[in-house]
Amino acid sequence: MSYKDPILLITRSEIEDQSLLSALIRKALAQVAPSSRLYIQILYNYDSLNPLIEELITVYDTARKYNDELNPIGVYALFGDNYLNLFECCKWSAILYHSQDTLQQFQNKSHLETVQLTDLNNVYDRSYSLDDGTTLAGRKNEYHTVAVGGTFDHLHDGHKILLTASAFLARSILIVGVTGPKLLVNKKFAEYLESYEERVSSVTNFVKLVKFDLRIDIYQINDVCGPTAQINEIDALVVSLETASGGDYINNVRKEKGFKQLDICVIGVIGTNPDEDDKFKDKLSSTHLRMLEAQKRQM
C-alpha cells in the first residue's frame, strides 16, 4: 500500500536510536506513492538551535541513505506545533507511526488514515553529525530580523537545514537573498538551473513548513552582499560553514556604512569530511543534483 504525501511521526528518543530511526524511515519511504513527498514530524518543541540542527541532520542524512538518487522522494522535516497550520497546504493522506504513544501526541488526526509501522528490521547505520567541534549558539525567536542567502537551486537537505535555522532564530522577519541569474552564468550544468521564480517559490514554500506566520522578504542578489549591505535593521546572518568567511566580509562592509554589526550563525555542511584536505569535496550540492538531472535527460 502506498500513500500520497504521508507524514511520519517520530520522537527524539527514536532519533537517538539510529537503528530504529533507519528502519522507520526506510519503511516509510517504501510506502510513499510516486511523485509524492514524505513529511517527517519530530514531536518536540525545541528552544535551542544546537539540538535542533543536530537532529535534523540525522533525520535528513538517514533519509538520503534510503532514497533513490536519480528519482528521489522529497523529504521535509518538521518539528514543534507548526504542523497545526499545515493540514490544508500539505494535504497529508496518512499518518505513519511506530508506537501508540507517538500517535497520541499528534493533534487533529481524526480525518487521516493511521498506519502503524511494524515488523521493522533494525540494522545499525551510522548517521552524520556535526563534526567541526562547534556548538551552535542561538535560541528560538532570538532575533527580530534574520538574513540568509544562497542560490537555492534544486532545494536540497543542506538548504532546508540552513533555512530552518534561519526561521527558527527569527522572531518577526526573515530576509532571504536569492542569487539572480547574472551571477549564475558560469555555474556547472547551468542549463539545468531552476529559474529565479522557481527558486523563490521553493524557498517561500519551505519556510512556511517551518514557521507558517513568519514574514519572508525576498531580495534578488546581484552582488556579494545583497540586502545585508542595504538594510541596517538586520540583527543576524545565517551562513554555512563553507561560506563562513563571507560573514566577516559583510560585517566589514556594514561597519564602513555605519550599520550595526551582525551576529553570525554558522551551520555545518552536510557531507563534509574533516580528514580530507578538501573537506567540502563530498558535500551535498546543487551542482551534483544538476548533474543527475542531466544524466536522467540523456537516458
Strand sequence of the main sheet, in spatial order? 3-2-1-4-5
> How many β-strand stretches?
10
Number of domain units:
2
| CATH class identity of the largest domain | Alpha Beta
Mean of pLDDT:
88
Task: Label the structural class.
Answer: alpha/beta
Judging from the principal axes of the Cα atoms, what is the shape?
A: globular
Helicity range:
25-40%
Would you mind describing this structure in some detail?
- α3 runs antiparallel to α6.
- Strands 3-2-1-4-5 form a five-stranded parallel beta sheet, sandwiched between helices.
- The protein has two domains: 110 residues, Rossmann fold, CATH 3.40.50; 125 residues, 3-Layer(aba) Sandwich (Rossmann fold), CATH 3.40.50.620.
- The protein has nine helices and ten strands.
- The protein is an alpha/beta fold.
- α5 links the parallel β4 and β5.
Give the topology.
Blueprint: E1 7-10, H1 12-16, H2 18-30, E2 37-42, H3 49-65, E3 74-79, H4 87-90, E4 94-97, H5 100-104, E5 113-116, E6 143-150, H6 157-169, E7 170-179, H7 196-210, E8 215-221, E9 236-240, H8 245-257, E10 263-267, H9 286-298
Parallel strand pairs: 1-2, 1-4, 2-3, 4-5, 6-7, 6-9, 7-8, 9-10
Helix pairs in contact: 3-6, 6-7
GO molecular function: dephospho-CoA kinase activity
Domain Cytidyltransferase-like: 148-290
Protein name: DEKNAAC101699
